[in-house]
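Troubleshooting log. The previous structure file for this entry was overwritten by mistake, so regenerating from the original sequence record. Sequence copied from the archived sheet and checked twice against the printout by T.R.
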Amino acid sequence: MPRDSHGHLVPGVISPLRSVPKHIRRPEYVGKSEPSPFTGSDVYPPETIELIRESGRIAAQAVALVGENIRPGVTTEELDQIAHDFMVAHDAYPSTLGYRGFPKSLCSSVNEVICHGIPDDTVLESGDIVNIDITAYKNQVHGDSNRTFLVGDVRQEVVDLVDRTEEALRRGIKSIAPGRQVNVIGRAIESYAKRFGYGVVRDFTGHGVGGAFHSGLIIPHYDTDRFTEVCEVGMVFTIEPMLTLGTANWDQWDDGWTITTKDKSITAQFEHTLVVTERGAEILTLP
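Regenerated output below.
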């Protein structure tokens, strides 16, 4: 079991790449070291938004299905298989598979892992939490979502962190309105998180999504005067706050992906893909 003597995670064994049927269209970056620069717009017409909604629904359903299978004794590798099979069965490509060399169909981030955890032979134990981040690609657009799940009997301060991280996402969504700068989202999230003394991760943000997995648009989760792009009707992006019980500073494993809190404190995350509407925002990643 890949944990050290203190119970902290260490890299496990990663299985070979999963196959995807040939009839399922791949994103342009598969087989390349990095994606091509995105030259499109983050504002989409209604017909494309409906396609993003379809991809988002598949991603959200995959997250929900994985959540139903989370229990003590299951490995993150087994959860990856469940998500992969579900997306393929719905003619969707798992967006993370082959993105900049990422080897799996979802990100599984356990306990102190902030984001980008690689599914492996890690066995989930009672008291853990695990974030499941899934993006589905279909009809040439991506939909991106994640949720944090409890494993067995989790201590109350961690349960509270998970609940409040989801509430932080809701508050970020409520702050959206046409004409407002995207940095109001981070202001809403951090002002709420500060009530409880949580760390707010700054270096990993929400992003534009749709025609590209990551378009270049940055959505901050902290209070800042930067990122002054103005919300427009039809603009599509993710909000995905990452809150911690300790520091927001982080380390990266040698795999080039796994990000953990520097002090090994527990961290939670929730994410939706959204479209800006005349009245605020609509969630595109609902099951």
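Helices lie at 46-68, 76-89, 156-174, 183-193. Archived copy saved in two places this time.
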